[in-house]
């Protein structure tokens, strides 16, 4: 009945749950001014959990466990590690947020959502998948609207909730149709059903369209992207960072597994790959064009992250091993880069209370190191070496070309240039413009230790992915192999 | 294993940049000293490489190869041949002289060089230098484009922060977007080449030496030659994509202009040659006429626009377009003389234009104007700079006994062999060049010192003189003793001709 594989396959989630329980027990006993230390506990606990899992719970041959609910393989494992890392960083960034920092329940919600994301990465059954998605989403609805009394935060939470529920319901309807037609909810059996033609192509395409709505909301591709700027702007900044990285990557995990495993049949895949290719082209173009006029840094990052969704989709569309590997690699690079960008926005607004792009004038004189980190983040988003974004973009484009989507890659090329304009424009404020009185030396930007640790770690990570990219790519590739 | 000299040269500036960043912000001279030491070290090593390169053996030498990402066939593969060795030397020279020029003079009337945040300035400049060295020595396409982009983006910051405050924002963005479009279009072409090679031969490799035998079909080469070649040639200032270059040069601070016109434009030309012509030779033959036409237009048009400029720095900027046009013209001949001339012209123009921008910068820092009619009599104030500029001018006009002649003569010879009409038309540029150089030498350096300027001008510093002397030495040396460089470039040209099928 019970085997060690079963245990190992959900060890990360068990450990996360443990961390959460420790917080629940410890937090009420701490005095108000010490409660912020829950962040240390969360981040430390997650890192410890990662180390333990890396030591004892590494997957071997891909296996289905827990009654076929969970797939235990490298793809899921690598993604889980990414999610846990980004949750740990988010916990650090939350610590000095005035409304979140000293509230233990915020960390609990973060961990609950993390468990959901981890399960999204490994679910091999539609019911399990749906539960995982809901587990990941509901805490995030709460966290987005966490700042009671703040109108924008309330709006963000409510908007995210309504839109999330709507799209998830549509997706659930798609799942129910799958079950109705095929009598199974297991993704691997489903692939077989499609192969023998148990589901007519038309029905299959309708099902796919319904499921894509739900995933489109998670990864924010056009036309399901328009919640993201409003939610990112209103939600507490660390949560916005988490939404734009781990939450989006979890959506991609589902996209990869569901589409590569359950719907790879050529008669079917031809229709959805071309649909997704068009969506990818539109998504990156819309994201980049709408990012151009943005004044608020969080809105800018929101649209930029929509654009990055488009680039990542190229790898999904390719439907090859290189494509899957490029998606995972892109996610790794993108998670670190975007967390860095949001972390800087958080650290900056913590000191200054400002979050418009023009308020970043003089940043490099006020704090040269923060300026350099921002340079790293934004150049990585632009896709410049030696930062992670460059290699990620190259492998995604290579995957697109290999699969014959040269036109899509060319659209991506044009979009990279549009993107460069607004990223560089932001850096112009950081490096060129000055504060109104040109007295930057009187306005330093002190970083508290959680920020310093998180930002430095992310910066090093972004540079490592961009230079010593071999191990990262090999891990992504090992994960991609599990899909074939 | 031999001493990995090429990677040491390439990564010296990067390490120096990191050290400089770690210095306290107020220790300006410490930042400068580290920069100078690193530049001197890189220069010495590049001179050493130049003189120990075995011309008899030819081919790629000082090879280093480390697997980087074997799954995709990416390796750190360094090596230099007869074309790139002079360019490595050029980069070493320009980097060293650029640091000398930027040392500056904090005399209250002058404020030359970089006084605001020199720490960041040298750090960004040196990151750029690593990119430049990397492109010249990379034999792996992925690494080539990797270093190429590293060489492009610091330019934005260097211009926008330390540039001429009138046009810097516009010029920096324009330059960066032009170069980015070029590089990313080339990147797409490179990825297509990579994938097609894999489909043809089953070899997954970005290695250019492998890719030379990829067996690309003629139609493929014809289709993809233009994006790849022109993408890189944007940085080489080819007409009609030259527009960023004069604006960028003018807006950039002196050392960056030197670096940019002196070395970075060679980067574009070199990459266009290395990737476009050498890997897609059939495409090069097919589009030869187009490249030749664009280059010829750049040569004559650039010279003409330079002639009518009133701004000294714009004049030099457009003269760069004209002279880089000659490099492209040499490429387009695809024959021995033309390619040899281009190889030499890249070095000669690099030294010459760096010198021009250095002198223009020195004058502007002191006179605070670059309008040619407002200047005059500079040879009385800064005789050393005047002599330097005149030597550069003679090189620019292609006078015998200077490197310009050694470089331009074979180019025209090669063009004549391919298409005599183009040779005739583009040689008009020599006359125009002589016109604007002589006119400006007379107006700026001779005659009476304008009253507005008289009295408060100071001579250039020792560091400036050293920089000028270094650049002049190479131009005169090649002119008097062509054997210093011609046989070396010849070995590189032989290799290219073999790839082109011995035409």
Can you put this structure into words, describing what you see?
The complex is a heterodimer of chains A (484) and B (503). With 484 residues, chain A is mostly helical. Chain A has a domain at 280-484. Chain A is 76% helix and 1% strand. Chain A contains 20 helices and two strands. Chain A has helices at residues 4-9, 11-26, 38-56, 74-94, 104-122, 126-144, 151-182, 187-196, 201-219, 227-234, 237-262, 266-291, 297-318, 321-352, 363-366, 368-382, 388-402, 406-431, 449-467, 470-481, and strands at 63-65, 70-72. A two-stranded antiparallel ribbon of chain A has the order 1-2. The longest helix of chain A has 32 residues, at 151-182. Chain A is globular and about 70 Å long. Chain B has 503 residues and is mainly alpha-helical. Chain B has one domain (5-499). Chain B is built from 20 helices and two strands. Chain B has helices at residues 5-22, 28-52, 84-103, 118-137, 141-162, 168-201, 208-211, 218-233, 244-251, 254-279, 281-286, 288-307, 312-333, 336-367, 378-381, 383-397, 403-418, 420-445, 462-480, 486-499, and strands spanning 61-69, 74-80. Chain B has a two-stranded antiparallel ribbon with strand order 1-2. In chain B, strand 1 and strand 2 form a beta hairpin. In chain B, helix 1 runs antiparallel to helix 2 and helix 5 (141-162) packs antiparallel against helix 6 (168-201). Chain B starts with a helix and ends with a helix. Chain A binds chain B through residues 364-365, 368, 372, 375, 379, 382, 384-386, 390, 394-395, 397-398, 401-402, 406, 409-410, 413, 416-417, 420-421, 424-425, 427-428, 431-432, 469-470, 473-474, 477, and chain B through 21, 25, 68-72, 117, 120, 142, 145-147, 149-150, 152-153, 156-157, 160-161, 168-169, 173, 176-177, 180-181, 184-185, 187-188, 191-192, 194-195, 198.
């Amino acid at each position: 009945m019970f085997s060690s594989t079963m245990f190992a396959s959900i060890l990360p989630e068990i450990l996360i749950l443990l961390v959460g329980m420790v917080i629940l027990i410890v937090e009420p006993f701490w005095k108000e001014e010490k409660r912020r230390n829950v962040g240390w506990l969360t981040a430390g606990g997650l890192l410890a959990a990662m180390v333990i899992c890396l030591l004892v719970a590494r997957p071997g041959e891909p296996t289905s466990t827990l009654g076929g609910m969970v797939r235990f393989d490298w793809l899921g494992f690598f993604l889980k590690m990414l999610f846990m890392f980004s949750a740990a960083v988010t916990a650090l960034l939350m610590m000095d947020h005035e409304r979140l920092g000293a509230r233990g329940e915020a960390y609990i919600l973060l961990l609950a959502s993390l468990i959901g994301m981890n399960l999204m990465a490994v679910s091999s059954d539609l019911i399990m998948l749906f539960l995982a998605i809901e587990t990941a989403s509901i805490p995030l609805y709460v966290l987005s609207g966490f700042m009671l009394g703040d109108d924008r935060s309330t709006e963000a939470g409510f908007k995210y909730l309504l839109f999330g529920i709507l799209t998830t319901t549509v997706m659930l309807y798609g799942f129910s149709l799958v079950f109705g037609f095929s009598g199974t909810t297991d993704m691997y059996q489903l692939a077989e059903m499609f192969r023998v033609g148990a589901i007519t192509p038309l029905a299959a395409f309708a099902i796919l369209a319904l499921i894509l709505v739900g995933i489109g909301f998670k990864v924010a591709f056009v036309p399901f992207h328009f919640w993201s700027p409003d939610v990112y702007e209103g939600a507490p900044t660390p949560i916005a960072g988490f939404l734009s990285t781990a939450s989006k990557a979890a959506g991609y995990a589902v996209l990869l597994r569901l589409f590569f495993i359950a719907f790879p049949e050529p008669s079917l895949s031809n229709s959805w790959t071309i649909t997704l290719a068009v969506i990818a082209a539109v998504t990156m173009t819309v994201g980049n064009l709408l990012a151009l006029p943005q004044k608020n840094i969080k809105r800018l990052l929101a649209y930029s992250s929509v654009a990055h969704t488009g680039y990542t989709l190229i790898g999904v569309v390719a439907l090859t091993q290189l494509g899957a590997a490029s998606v995972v690699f892109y996610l790794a690079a993108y998670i670190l880069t975007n967390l860095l960008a949001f972390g800087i926005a958080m650290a900056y607004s913590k000191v200054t209370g400002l979050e418009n792009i023009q308020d970043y004038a003089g940043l490099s004189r006020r704090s040269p190191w923060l300026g350099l980190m921002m340079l790293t983040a934004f150049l990585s988003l632009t896709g410049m070496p030696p930062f992670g974004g460059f290699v990620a973009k190259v492998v995604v484009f290579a995957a697109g070309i290999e699969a014959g989507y040269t036109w899509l890659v060319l659209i991506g090329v044009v979009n990279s240039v549009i993107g460069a304009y607004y990223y560089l424009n932001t850096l112009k404020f950081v490096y060129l413009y000055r504060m109104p009185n040109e007295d930057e030396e009187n306005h330093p930007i002190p970083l508290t230790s959680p920020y310093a640790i998180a930002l430095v770690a992310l910066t090093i990570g972004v540079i490592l992915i961009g230079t010593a990219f071999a191990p990262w790519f090999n891990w992504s590739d090992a994960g991609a192999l599990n899909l074939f | 294993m031999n001493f990995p000299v090429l990677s040491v040269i390439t990564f010296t500036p990067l390490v120096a940049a990191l050290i400089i960043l770690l210095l306290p912000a107020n220790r300006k001279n410490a930042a400068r000293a580290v920069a100078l030491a690193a530049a001197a070290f890189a220069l010495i090593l590049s001179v050493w490489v130049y003189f120990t390169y075995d011309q008899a053996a030819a081919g790629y030498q000082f090879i280093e190869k480390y697997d980087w990402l074997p799954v995709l066939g990416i390796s750190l593969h360094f090596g230099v041949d007869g074309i790139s060795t002079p360019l490595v030397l050029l980069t070493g020279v320009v980097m060293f002289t650029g640091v000398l020029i930027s040392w500056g003079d904090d005399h209250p009337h002058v404020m030359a060089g970089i006084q605001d945040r020199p720490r960041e300035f040298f750090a960004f400049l040196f990151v750029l230098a690593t990119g430049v060295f990397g492109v010249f020595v990379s034999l792996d396409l992925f690494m080539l484009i990797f270093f190429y982009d590293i060489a492009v983006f610091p330019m934005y910051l260097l211009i926008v922060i330390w540039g001429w405050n009138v046009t810097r924002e516009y010029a920096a963005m324009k330059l960066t977007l032009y170069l980015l479009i070029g590089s990313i279009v080339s990147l797409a072409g490179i990825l297509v080449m990579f994938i097609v090679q894999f489909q043809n031969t089953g070899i997954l490799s970005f290695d250019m030496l492998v890719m030379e035998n990829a067996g690309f079909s003629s139609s493929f080469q014809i289709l993809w030659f233009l994006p790849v070649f022109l993408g890189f040639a944007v940085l080489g200032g080819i007409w009609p994509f030259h527009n960023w270059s004069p604006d960028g040069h003018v807006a950039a601070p002196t050392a960056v202009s030197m670096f940019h016109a002196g070395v970075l434009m060679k980067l574009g030309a070199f990459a266009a040659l290395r990737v476009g012509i050498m890997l897609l030779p059939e495409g090069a033959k097919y589009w030869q006429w187009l490249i030749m036409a664009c280059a010829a237009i750049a040569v004559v048009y650039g010279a003409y626009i330079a002639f009518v400029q009133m701004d000294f720095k714009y004049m030099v900027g457009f003269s760069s377009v004209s002279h880089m046009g000659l490099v492209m013209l040499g490429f387009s001949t695809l024959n021995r003389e033309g390619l040899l001339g281009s190889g030499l012209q890249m070095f000669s123009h690099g030294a010459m234009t760096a010198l021009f921008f250095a002198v223009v910068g020195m004058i502007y820092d002191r006179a605070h104007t670059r309008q040619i009619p407002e200047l005059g009599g500079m040879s009385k104030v800064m005789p050393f700079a005047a002599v330097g500029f005149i030597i550069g001018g003679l090189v620019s006009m292609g006078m015998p006994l200077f490197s310009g002649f050694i470089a331009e003569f074979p180019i025209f010879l090669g063009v004549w062999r391919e298409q005599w009409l183009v040779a005739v038309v583009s040689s008009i540029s020599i006359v125009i060049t002589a016109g604007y150089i002589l006119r400006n030498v007379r107006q700026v350096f001779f005659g009476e010192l304008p009253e507005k300027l008289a009295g408060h001008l100071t001579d250039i510093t020792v560091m400036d003189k050293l920089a000028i002397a270094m650049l002049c030495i190479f131009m005169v040396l090649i002119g008097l003793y062509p054997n210093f460089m011609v046989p070396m470039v010849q070995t590189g040209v032989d290799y290219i001709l073999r790839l082109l099928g011995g035409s």
